[in-house]
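Attaching the record inline, Q. Sequence:
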Amino acid sequence: MLAKIEELLQEVDSLTAGNAEELEALRIKYLSKKGVINALMADFRNVPAEQKKEVGMKLNELKNRMQERIAALKETFESQDNGTAELDLTRTAYPIELGTRHPLNIVRNEIISIFNRLGFTIADGPEVEDDWHVFSSMNFAEDHPARDMQDTFFIESHPDIILRTHTSSVQSRVMEVSQPPIRVICPGRVYRNEAISYRAHCFFHQVEGLYIDKNVSFTDLKQVLLQFAQEMFGPETKIRLRPSYFPFTEPSAEMDISCDICGGEGCAFCKYTGWVEILGCGMVDPAVLEANGIDSKVYTGYAFGMGVERITNLKYKVKDLRMFSENDTRFLKEFESAN
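Structure, as predicted:
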């Protein structure tokens, strides 16, 4: 048997195959259940006891080398370009140009990065939502205009199912399964039934934030938003808060930043006011806390929300909102340096 094994070891390195069929024939001949090596292993029981160690080692060496040789030949076939692959005529012609990040992604990632450094984590939720998470849990009245079909996309066969109009629904889902302290931001796409124009679209992107804990105050909210504005638009940026109304916050405010074009002096961009509105905010209404299972007598919180397109327009002075979703490469190339 030793002589037979030595003879096969001499053959291993010289084995060749011209195609996959020949390679499979070699595998069957040497490594299959009825192959040469298995036959030798079956005959191993007849080897005298004093030779078993030597013969066993040689037999294992033969098997390992044969497996390695077959694998090497197979790899050679797989790496060869035999010219039989079909040409995909739908592929972009060479040379293929490298793309860039979309301006909305650039700004969204910058917003997320700023709030991450302030201790906020990211929360996500579905875009197809139900009435409870979008409206009822956020303290919207039954007759609130946002519930009208003129403002919101409803599923006709299931009126309770809608496309979310804000990422506040994610805040509701977080509050359902978590207890304070809660500190999250909720980036995502939202939908509203609006006529598409240079200043509005039926879908856009938001980043909303929520912080709930003991003794959270409006002062905390103001300081966080000031920090965000100065990180995003520059250290000289000023903010102001104007009283407003939202069903889910009380008190509520709109936040403006000093115009970074005229430095607050007044220009056409800021309509000669020196200020530009960027987001809405306020203290979370106790009714919202209670509806989502949080004791409003123990905890308080604040929330804010901004449109990513709005912030992107302020940073890059894009005049037409539709350009963000038209995929015109000439427009997208303008943001290569922003990467």
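The chain has a mean pLDDT of 86. Strands lie at 121-122, 128-130, 154-155, 158-163, 182-191, 203-213, 239-246, 249-258, 275-284, 300-307.

More tomorrow.
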